[in-house]
């Protein structure tokens, strides 16, 4: 075990070890519902009238498509790339480094191995992403305004004015927001009552709040 730890925290393996640890911690938080797995994704619904932001988004999306890393959250792509790069560098450091002793400096061969690992890891990650895309379909054909009134299930531990995610019955993952304090927790059924096209988020209330709102708007019988 000591030998393994020494290897993974030595140059160049450590370049990928530290990001891998960070990513594993991120996924633990994501599975616990404390963070949104799409937190680092580019906003695909930027207003086209905003030229600068629009160009930035299009450029980023095009770059990911070129590499074959589109169609899944950016965190998934980064995790796959880092996993492959980590494994490749570990193996190269173990089996190839001895072949270059005295020929190239350890720093130089380490840098070359790290670069080569990334170059090989990207297409390997793209290959793995292909079958995963169907699990992250966004169903863009649905008019988001028409989803007002839908009942969803909260997938994060809480929902606030700037955090929250829910899933519809047909599997669509939505970013949701709500005023605080509230008693909505993971697994709670919530209703979409408004959509903000600027932030691409829905305002939600609990089913009980929706029923109360509906009752208060019913006309009094004469």
UniProtKB/TrEMBL annotation:
This is DUF1449 family protein. The chain crosses the membrane at residues 12-35, 72-91, 103-126. The keyword Transmembrane helix applies. It comes from Aliiglaciecola litoralis. The lineage of its organism: Bacteria, Pseudomonadati, Pseudomonadota, Gammaproteobacteria, Alteromonadales. Keywords: Membrane, Transmembrane, Transmembrane helix.
